[in-house]
Amino acid sequence: MLKENESIQKKIGRGRCPESDSVRMENRIRTIATVKWAMRKKAAVNPHQFSQWFDDEIHRLDPDGRDSQSSGKWRKNLAGDVALGKKDLRVLAMLIPDAENYFQHGPENLWDALWGDESRLWEICTIKGYVVGINNEGEPAKNFITLVGPDIPFNESLSNFERSLLAKYKRCNGGLEMKDLVSALSLYRLHQRLVQIARIDGTSAYRCVKLCLWSPRVSRELEDLQIYDRIATDLLVEESDRIKGVVAHRKCIAKSIFGSEDHPVEGLLYALDPFEFYSMEKWIADLGMSIDYYTHVVQPAN
User: Which residues, 6+ apart, have CB-to-CB distance to 168 below 8 Å?
Assistant: First the structure.
């Protein structure tokens, strides 16, 4: 398990950031990840090497172009001290065409899942697939359906996603991917909005997020981008605050863990590791279907 609690005690006391601080933090994460991504594309192992490459390319286009190495620009960006501005991104996109898109949306639309407009969440987490069965003639048949999407009830979407995620986790030895984290985060945010309107049990969405964050491929990718700790800690604080402040959410968690919605729930401990309270085995059993069966019955189309 990766460490996530080094900066938690400071953040947990002051709750979520004001909006202006939150936007600054988002831009900081976008900047660090974008610079690290660009460095990897050009096989630069440090900001100094990247500056050399960048300056050489810029001077080919404009011999009088500004030198970035002497100003330490990319070092400051990578450290998160200075965010990339629109002009920076336009210039970078001249050399790496996907730079603006990466800064705006992130790997596999991760920024959209974390902070984007809620109207896009279903778009980035919809999953189509096949249910394998037997037709009227007794022959194998595949029915193409929506497994996760806005045209079926939220609880059904979440349940289908849980099953497909757990099946993949078991089948691939924990080898979940960034797109799995993006889908989990989208459903997590959708549940946040829905629970403000009506009591709806979507507590498993956070377990899905956590399972993805702890997957070796996902955690390694986020660590390589130098943003794992920032994202993991922010989500930890967010879930802890929700348990404390959203009564319906806390009651659903208590019911699923202890069998009584009035049982107290320690939000920080649960947010740190929900599987200490709700094991993988219980999760699979509560879904009412074996993972092996689900693996053979449902085949995601993407």
Answer: 175, 176, 180
Q: What is the pLDDT of residues 128-181, one digit of tens each?
A: 877 666 566 766 667 778 889 999 999 999 999 999 899 889 888 888 999 999
The two tokens of residue 157 are 């979407």
Q: What angle do CA 110, 249, 148 make, to 5 degrees?
A: 45
Q: Which of 193, 197, 202, 120 is nearest to 159 (CA)?
A: 202
Taking 3-state DSSP, the helix, strand and coil percentages for the chain, each rounded to the nearest 5, stand at: 65, 5, 30
Say whether pTM exceeds 0.85.
Answer: yes
Is the Cα torsion angle 40, 41, 44, 50 positive or negative in sign?
negative
Q: Reduced to 3 states, what is the DSSP secondary structure of residue 71? A: coil
3-state secondary structure of 146: strand
Are the CB atoms for 51 and 69 separated by under 8 Å? yes
Residue boundaries of the structural domains of the chain: 16-105, 119-300
